[in-house]
TrEMBL record:
Residues 19-126 form the SET domain. This is SET domain-containing protein. It holds the Pfam family SET. One of its GO terms (cellular component) is nucleus.
Length: 165
């Protein structure tokens, strides 16, 4: 929820601490986010404020650093999600969707379906991966989901499409 204070600057609630999540490490994927309690579909998992790198700065420096494994496409450049947002691994059948909020410079992460205890919380990075996907299985529908996310300008529309199944 976003509230405007008297001076019109937004105050953004950060409810992430209500959910009991863990960081666990996988040999192939590195660190990832796991549920320790059941999470219901449509639950807001976390909100990550972003750090924006303008295109010029990113092209000159960022793309040659570790940042390139973590950044999201943004309106005017590339964005690093602060906090848990940078820890979600990729799955081509994701159980977590994300919505970029360009105006408030943050990303909201929402459960796309019910998530069980010990399940990893994964997002889709889209169709153009830069690493060997440890979870790929070549399923047609999943490939289609990835491609549609890559093509979509609208995170909300993509999430709706996945949730409608
Ligand atoms: C945004 S980071 C995710 C957090 C990362 N695992 C860590 O430990 O910092 C993205 C990186 O995680 C790894 N990764 C994410 N999803 C993966 C997957 N499905 N298969 C293999 N590696 C994955 C890749 O090395 C990728 O560059």
């Amino acid at each position: 929820m976003i509230e405007l204070m008297d001076n019109d600057t937004p105050t953004i609630a950060l409810p992430q601490h209500k959910l009991q999540l863990e960081l666990r490490t996988d040999e192939r994927k590195g660190r990832g986010v796991f549920a320790t309690i059941p999470i219901e579909r449509r639950t807001l998992i976390t909100i990550s404020p972003i750090l924006l790198f303008p295109h010029e700065e990113y092209n000159a420096h960022g793309q040659y650093t570790q940042l390139d494994h973590y950044t999201y496409k943004w309106k005017d450049g590339m964005a690093l999600a602060l906090g848990l947002g940078s820890m979600f691994n990729h799955d081509n059948d994701p159980n977590v969707g994300f919505m970029r909020d360009f105006e408030n410079k943050l990303i909201r992460y929402v459960a796309l379906r019910d998530i069980a205890v010990d399940e990893e919380l994964c997002i889709s990075y889209g169709a153009n991966l830069w690493f060997e996907d440890a979870t790929a299985d070549g399923d047609d529908r999943k490939q289609q989901i990835m491609q549609q996310q890559s093509d979509s300008e609208d995170d909300m529309a993509w999430m709706q499409m996945v949730m409608d199944g």
